[in-house]
Amino acid sequence: MVVERRDPPFGGSVVFLLMNLPLGVVAFALLTSFTAAGVGTAVVWVGVGLLAVLVLAVRGAARLERARVYALLDRYIELPYLPLPAGRQALRWKARLKDPSTWRDLAYFFLLFPLGVVEFVLVTTFWATSLALTALPIYFRWLPGGAYHFPAEDVRWLTVDSTVEALPWAALGVLFIALSVALTKALAGVHARLAAGLLGPTVAQRHRMERWWLDTEEKNLVAG
């Protein structure tokens, strides 16, 4: 559940979006490796242990991801997990595997890689274009031939070889900066909502947790 609805902070949004690609690559590589190895060796029971490690790792990584969303995007996501039952480990593992939150955590980390690619490309492209255009009146004189050629050195549709000619491009760069800021915050907001949808509790889960806590309080009162 996303408690705060205001726009995410700009600085945190930039850091968050740029982190998503490397984190997505690592998550996708580990998930596919452990899943393939676990399924492939399940018949000799080695795979069962690998898949168990995968489940624990995914749930632990999801906790870290909720903390990252809160730290960088100022969005608090509630934990969706019910307390594990007391008793044998078999019952506790059964509860983990039956918990839909485990599988939604897994889906989130599978999606993080393609989302990270799209977010990284959009953010770096918009910001590189914005800063290049804005700073053009400063650096064009150090380019080959002391001029900037658009779209390329060998295809010269437009040539900028003076500060006056570069000023309209700089103004366009300022406009692109405003667009880049809006795009960065919008992408971060969309990702925060996706994270809340997959890593947070559903309405049904929230109702089950409320009932569990009520039952626990009643049992404590009776026992007291």
UniProtKB/TrEMBL annotation:
Pfam families: Sensor. This is Sensor domain-containing protein. InterPro entries: Put_sensor_dom. It comes from Amycolatopsis melonis. The chain crosses the membrane at residues 12-31, 37-58, 106-128, 166-184. Residues 16-199 form the Putative sensor domain. Keywords: Membrane, Transmembrane, Transmembrane helix.
